[in-house]
Amino acid sequence: MLIIREENIWETWPNYKKSSLIHDYVTLYVDRNAKPHDYGNGEFYSAIEMHILEKIYFNPGITVTEIAKTNKRTKSAVSQSVSKLEKKGLITKTPQEFHGKRISLWPTAKGKQLTKLHIKYDDEHTTEFFGKIAEYYTSDQLDAFFKIMEACLCIIQSEGETP
Question: Which H, E and C letters describe 29-51, residue by residue?
Fold first, then answer.
């Protein structure tokens, strides 16, 4: 049995502190994004809803299955969000011409407008956030951070399977 005194934790598991930092950041980020926001039209939407709407905006005609695969979510979870988007008048569903069971998703005019507001909102908040970080780090260091984030995303996406 391994007995670790508290003062030896960092020596025994030197990467634990890094892992804990990542966990804390991700938890706070997810919690923040789970709360519905007004993106500028007076209505409130979750980040998950907005990013699914954005996926439909940039890929008109996409299906729930395709969104589930690219977002590493279950079809059921995506389908629930899609139903909310449809009820709010942000998307429409149409059967595919040659595949009657497949349903294509299309943004409505309201959905397109909201997507643009969301992109503006994200851009402004990201600019503000990294403006604060830029007080401590150079632009080269921030660029390196984003390259590392891209690499992490690629590794994570290539590992697990879609639920």
Answer: HHHHHHCCEECCCCCEECHHHHH
The whole-chain average pLDDT of the chain stands at 88
The pTM (predicted TM-score) of the whole model is 0.78
Tell me the residue type at 33: N
Give exposure, 25-48, as e/b (b: 16+ Cβ within 10 Å): eeeeeeeeeeeebebeeeeebebb
What pLDDT score does 16 carry? 81
Winning range, highest mean pLDDT, from 17-26, 108-117, 133-142: 108-117
Phi then psi for 12, rounded to 5 degrees? -70, -45
**Separation CA 95–CA 83 (nearest Å):** 15
Contacts of 9 (CB under 8 A, 6+ apart): 16
Contact between 111 and 90 (Cβ < 8 Å):
yes
Q: What's the rounded Cα separation, in Å, for the pair 93 and 104?
A: 6
How many C-beta neighbours within 10 Å does residue 15 have? Answer: 9
Neighbours of 116 (CB within 10 A): 14
User: 42-158: which CATH architecture?
Assistant: Orthogonal Bundle (1.10)
